[in-house]
Amino acid sequence: MGIVNKAIDKYQKCIDACNRCAQACMECMTMCLSEPDVTARKKCIAMLNECACICKEAASFMSMDAKYAMDLCKLCATMCNDCATECDMFKDIHCQKCADECRTCANECNMMAAAK
C-alpha cells in the first residue's frame, strides 16, 4: 500500500518485487565476489549491479507515479530476465535464489508495462 499516497497502491506489488530483486542482486553480487571462480563471474557480477540499479529506479519512478514509470518497468523486465539468465549459469544457492527473484520482478514489471 502507498505510504502517503493511495494512488500508488496500483504499483505496490511491482514496487515490492523491484525492491526485493534489488536486494537479492546486491546480496548475490557480494557473495559472488567471494567465490573462488570470481573471474568467471565477471559478466554476472556486472549484470547484478545493473539489475539492482534499474530495479531501484523503477521502484522510485512508480512511487512518484512518474510519467515514464511504465517505460522503465519494461526496461527493468528485460534487464531482470537477462540477469536471471546470467545467474542461472551458476549453480550456487545464492545465484539460483537471485535468478528466481529476478524472474518474479520481470513478471511483475511486464504486467505493469502491459497495463499501461
TrEMBL record:
It holds the Pfam family Csp. InterPro entries: Csp_YhjQ, YHJQ-like. Gene3D superfamilies: 1.20.1270.360. It comes from the Bacteria. PANTHER family: CYTOPLASMIC PROTEIN (PTHR37310:SF1), CYTOPLASMIC PROTEIN-RELATED (PTHR37310). This is Four-helix bundle copper-binding protein. It comes from Caproicibacterium lactatifermentans.
